[in-house]
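Hi everyone, sorry if this is the wrong subforum. Our group has a chain we'd like a structural model of before ordering constructs, and none of us has done structure prediction before. Sequence below.
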Amino acid sequence: MEAEARICYYLGANAPSGFYSLYDQLIDPERARDVRILKGGPGCGKSTLMKQVGKALEEAGHCVEYVRCSGDPDSLDAVVIPALGAAVVDGTAPHVVEPRYPGLVESYVNLGDCYDRVALQEVGQELKGCMKGYKGCYSRAYRCLTAAAQLEEDMRTPLLTPALEARMAKRVRGILSREIKREGDQAGRSVQRFLGAITWQGVLREYGTVEAQCGRVYELADTYGLAHTMLTCLAAGAMAAGHDVVACPDPLFPDRMAHLLIPSLSLAFVSTTPEQPWPRRPYRRIRLDAMADQELLRRNRSRLRFSRKVSAALLEEAVASLAQAKAMHDQLEELYNPHVDFEQVAARGDQIIWDFLDLAQGT
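Answer:
Right subforum, don't worry. Here is the predicted structure as tokens:
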């Protein structure tokens, strides 16, 4: 997939507390018309089917939102066609999805039926062996993420002073008056999406998704995780002015906002780090580090440098554990794949495509 040409988010995160899910925000239940929930184990073709559906709907001219898997960013966990109120989602653990309006909106698609159960008996012991160490790798990754988050919090806390919050609030007022004009009489709504994830491939951010929706990008240069307060105020101001927003939490701190997108204004606010800068020249750049108390930064320079170094090492260890889990999952899929009827999977994908295109005809 070319991230710069497509809208790609995550709805799950590998976080210190374990797998953190935003799957309840997959699609607005009051606007949803047809949601297919896929069930089935490893290697049964769930991601393949979703790629098939996404490609076909794109070719038919529809805007498709892709939800990547935080366990394996090359795989999909969902595709959403917002204009049709339609989606296909992997409803298996850990991102369990249950219907709100079963039969009316949501329906199950059991891809487990596509397994050759007789043939799988021959590799049963190998399958069980692969599954044993899988959860242990994730447990170790989560422990590393917990330690990294504690160090990140140790850096942030002394710098987030009332004086800094006052400076950020003043800057927000200027941005709101300049960039955000009122739209209608109704308040806007917020949906949450992770813009990045901690994966076996490293710490990823889908900057291409921002560029696909927003031509004007404020880069918030933020070494120490200070952006949440500013982003919260910007989101509140945008919604008060009638604009829907995409609030993007930080995978390491899912209760904090790391980025904000306002697609109706083609406007985004993206916090960056020295390790993950904005890849282009931004519309505006705000150095949050420079807004912090410089005397505090000077006094704490050694401790901050140490904390950043150790936190980065812990993140690397977490990524290594996730890579081990991915290798075990790949072994599982290699065992399952020869015993899956992929023609049957493709036929079910075709049926979903036809049903979604019928929705478009009735729109």
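For your construct planning: The chain has two domains: 3-115+340-362, 162-292. The first strand starts at residue 7 and ends at 10.
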